[in-house]
Design goal:
The complex is a heterodimer of chains A (about 110) and B (about 110).
Chain A (H helix, E strand, L loop, with lengths): L3 E4 L2 E4 L5 E7 L5 E7 L5 E8 L2 E5 L6 E7 L2 E6 L8 E8 L9 E2 L3 E5 L1
Parallel strand pairs in A: 2-11
Antiparallel strand pairs in A: 1-3, 3-8, 4-5, 4-9, 5-6, 7-8, 9-10, 9-11
Chain B lengths: L2 E5 L2 E5 L3 E9 L5 E7 L5 E7 L5 E3 L5 E5 L4 E7 L7 E8 L7 E2 L3 E6 L1
Parallel strand pairs in B: 2-11
Antiparallel strand pairs in B: 1-3, 3-8, 4-5, 4-9, 6-7, 7-8, 9-10, 9-11
Chain lengths: ~110, ~110
């Protein structure tokens, strides 16, 4: 069983469309995250949820909206997609929010906006 | 706020040589430090972590990291790497007050036969 699973793995879409990426973890972790990895491999945190509550909301366009229906799921919805949104998006989870515990990452969703 | 800087975006070594990937950190409180590996088209996998006490941390796949507070570094090493160790390596830092982990820019490791 995959610990942190994301769907879809690849997403190709046109500018202006709305799309969602889903993430589920079966580790019983309390905290989940979304990271964006750009073409130079730089990883930037976007959002963090602890037990369905938004903890971190970095400087991300409000076209990006996370939703956590329960602590095992954290989805990412993106409105009006732009070329610059093309990247790999990683979901992650951790046992306890804060330091000392490593994160478990999903395998990523490669989003290409054309 | 805490941060890490990885020195060298690309490191190339021969099989059997010593791998040294450098990471300097900045943190106003005792940090938690991590090394992750990312193989092509995969997510990040935790190699090892420093939380306190031991200055030499052993991880998976023969990797080790040395924590040195006086010089604020957490360098990753491996003796006798294999070609299968070729990947992107990320250093990361968090503290107990935050809910996010900050990553370095990554170092791509190439291992030549």
């Amino acid at each position: 069983d995959t610990a942190v699973s994301q769907t879809p793995k690849y997403l190709v879409t046109q500018m202006g469309n709305d799309k969602s990426i889903k993430c589920e973890q079966n580790l019983g972790h309390d905290t989940m995250y979304w990271y964006k990895q750009d073409s130079k491999k730089f990883l930037k945190i976007m959002f963090s949820y602890n037990n369905k509550e938004l903890i971190i909301n970095e400087t991300v366009p409000n076209r990006f909206s996370p939703k956590s229906p329960d602590k095992a799921h954290l989805n990412l919805h993106i409105n009006s997609l732009e070329l610059g949104d093309s990247a790999v998006y990683f979901c992650a989870s951790s046992q306890v929010s804060g330091g000392g515990y490593g994160y478990t990452f999903g395998s990523g969703t490669r989003l290409t906006v054309v | 706020a805490q941060s890490v800087t990885q020195l060298g975006s690309h490191v190339s070594v021969s099989e059997g040589a010593l791998v040294l990937l450098r990471c300097n950190y900045s943190s106003s409180v005792p940090p938690y430090l991590f090394w992750y590996v990312q193989y092509p088209n995969q997510g990040l996998q935790l190699l090892l972590k420093y939380t306190s006490a031991a200055t030499l941390v052993k991880g998976i796949n023969g990797f080790e990291a040395e924590f040195k507070k006086s010089e604020t570094y957490f360098h990753l090493t491996k003796h006798s790497p294999h070609m299968s160790d070729a990947a992107e390596y990320f250093c990361a830092v968090s503290d107990n007050n935050n809910n996010d982990m900050r990553f370095g820019a990554g170092t791509r490791l190439t291992v030549k036969p």
